[in-house]
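Weekly structure sync, notes
Attendees: PL (lead), two postdocs, one rotation student
Agenda item 3: pending single-chain targets
PL asked that the sequence for the first pending target be pasted directly into the notes so everyone works from the same version. It is reproduced below exactly as submitted, 212 residues in total.
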Amino acid sequence: MGMHPDVAVLLDLVPADFAGGEQIDWAAAEATLGTKLPSDYKALLDTYGVGDIGDLIILPPLPSDVPGWEECHVGSMTDGLRGFWEDRGGVPHVTLGSEAVLPWGSGMNANEMAWLTNDPDPDKWPVIAWRRQHSWGESPWALFDCNMVQFITRMMLGQFDACPLGDASLWKRTGAFVSWREQDRRFRAGLDPATGEPDPYAEMYPFTEERP
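Predicted structure, written out during the meeting:
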């Protein structure tokens, strides 16, 4: 089976030099979550593994075995994001309840990204985003008629009318993908987990097995 075309576009912008190499059991993941998952999402994680693009955390479907990241996954983030939907009314003019919200991304100065599961075919799910920073009187929620990989590439290429999130760190610019395994290796070596450069604070906060 060939590469997913949307992931191929992303690879041209964000090389997989620091891929994690995880082999996710998608049948088990979908059974645990109780839903099929979009093919672009599965292809992205099959290509890159589990990690971050810049400050954007790509949530794996199930808990990771990388120290410090065990609680960061789709299942652990779902209740909180659905609570935001219930508290703030969701995307304007969308009548679906919070059970239609399924997260896939986080970070970027506390912005949250999800799918709106409004179709039996997960490849037709649009992206929704909860923006902590937004204009006065504007809903913190917004809907984007594209899949999650398209959302990432269009944001980096500046193909929306305006920055889709309340954080511009990936707006009209790319970020490096660094797997959580590579970040852990760098941390243990006294390097900055995001950049791989020497961490000037490493001696102040030396590595121990009791990571925060």
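Discussion points:
- The CA atoms of residues 135 and 166 lie 9 Å apart.
- The mean pLDDT is 92.
Action: rotation student to compare against the earlier draft before next sync.
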